[in-house]
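Q: Hi! First time doing this. I have a protein sequence and I read that you can turn it into a structure. Is that right? Here it is:
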Amino acid sequence: MTASPRSKHPGPQPRVLFVCAHNAGRSALAAALARHHAGDRIEVDSAGTTPDAGPSASTIATLAELGIDDSAHRPTAVTAARVAAADVVVAMKPGLDLPRVAGVRYETWTLPDPAGWDTDGIRPLRDAIDQRVRALLTELHPDVAPA
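A: Yes, that's right. Below is the predicted 3D structure, encoded as structure tokens:
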């Protein structure tokens, strides 16, 4: 396989890694939304700098409202290998200590930490992340429709 013009990796799909502190809220939301919108056109991963033991129940509930079942999500740690496998790494907050890998594009989205928030509190954050995710996906792959 040859690399797509937008990807440094063999194969047609660009790869995106969403990272937050605990991989239970922001990055989990972004990854689930990206998978939902992009299907098999973009490879999606998520991780945390200090992963929680499990996902946020409120995060899972807000995704379920959109028909997205992410109940199997388990927070995982960011590693240099995960970063190197990505074309784009999106830090879901400033100041995360991420491995730096040449050739990887880094973005930072300044978003609040939803730890302890209920479903009503997370819903507007989910929607804001969804808009950013859709814009990124559209940039990375022309067949992904914008928001």
